[in-house]
């Protein structure tokens, strides 16, 4: 914690936004908060926000819960935005107990909860970035919070591809060996029949020669 009163700053690990007072948002770099990855945003004119886990590591196709808790007077408006190298996107906005307004880019991929949390289904690498929640009271006061999501590829996908490729090669090799065995068998039978016919033909010629004599 740095400073005092309204200018108190609560800092996440790594590069994360920092709340200054009740309405300003800054980006913090080298400063890190010791301890676990939770973050508490104090009440700013009546709104307080708590994030149990501010940094989440996931793999492709995981379902991720961005968990938060808030307290305020009355029913607030909750908004989630996504910030990454590709820009800023609005994900969803709603009031607890009402229908959520989910953006087209996240249709069928987001589930909202009355405590302000959201769940993302089947995340991909492009979902990595900063997820910013804003809780706004009816009177206009608000509070920000951020969760950092890292999504990585599943390493065994490449191994799976190699395994499938090797299995395919083994299957092709087995088919070729079977074909060679069948061809060899047919060739052997053909040669045997040919030798048998040749033998019969030779026998007939000898018999004819004996008769002529």
UniProtKB/TrEMBL annotation:
Keywords: Cell membrane, Cell projection, Developmental protein, Glycoprotein, Membrane, Signal, Transmembrane, Transmembrane helix
GO biological process, one term: protein homooligomerization
InterPro entries documented for this protein: CD2/SLAM_rcpt, Ig-like_dom_sf, Ig-like_fold, Ig_sub, NK_rcpt_2B4_Ig_dom
Membrane-crossing segments per the record: 159-183
Gene Ontology CC annotation, any one: axon
Location(s), subcellular: Cell membrane; Cell projection, Axon; Cell projection, Dendrite
Membrane topology summary: Single-pass type I membrane protein
Domain Immunoglobulin: 53-152
Function: Cell adhesion-like membrane protein of the central nervous system (CNS) which modulates both the position and complexity of central neurons by altering their membrane morphology and dynamics. Involved in the formation of neuronal dendrites and protrusions including dendritic filopodia. In synaptogenesis, regulates synapse formation by altering dendritic spine morphology and actin distribution. Promotes formation of unstable neuronal spines such as thin and branched types. Regulates neuronal morphogenesis and migration during cortical development in the brain.
Subunit comment: Can homooligomerize through cis interactions within the same cell membrane.
Protein name in UniProt: V-set and transmembrane domain-containing protein 5
Phylogenetic classification of the source organism: Eukaryota, Metazoa, Chordata, Craniata, Vertebrata
């Amino acid at each position: 914690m740095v400073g005092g009163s309204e200018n108190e700053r609560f800092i996440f690990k790594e590069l994360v936004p920092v709340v200054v007072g009740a309405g300003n948002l800054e980006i913090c770099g080298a400063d890190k908060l010791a301890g676990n990855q939770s973050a508490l945003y104090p009440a700013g004119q009546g709104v307080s926000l708590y994030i149990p886990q501010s940094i989440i590591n996931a793999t492709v196709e995981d379902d991720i819960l961005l968990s938060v808790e808030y307290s305020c007077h009355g029913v607030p408006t909750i908004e989630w935005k996504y910030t990454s190298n590709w820009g800023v996107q609005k994900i969803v906005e709603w009031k607890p107990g009402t229908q959520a307004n989910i953006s087209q880019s996240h249709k069928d991929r987001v589930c909202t909860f009355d405590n302000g949390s959201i769940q993302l289904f089947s995340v991909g690498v492009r979902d990595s970035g900063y997820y910013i929640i804003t809780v706004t009271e009816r009177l206009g006061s608000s509070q920000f919070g951020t969760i950092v999501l890292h999504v990585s590829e599943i390493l065994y996908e490449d191994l799976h591809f190699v395994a499938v490729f090797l299995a395919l090669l083994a299957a092709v090799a087995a088919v070729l060996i079977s074909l060679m065995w069948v061809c060899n068998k047919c060739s052997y039978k053909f040669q045997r029949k040919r030798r048998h016919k040749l033998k019969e033909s030779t026998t007939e010629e000898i018999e004819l020669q004996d008769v002529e004599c």
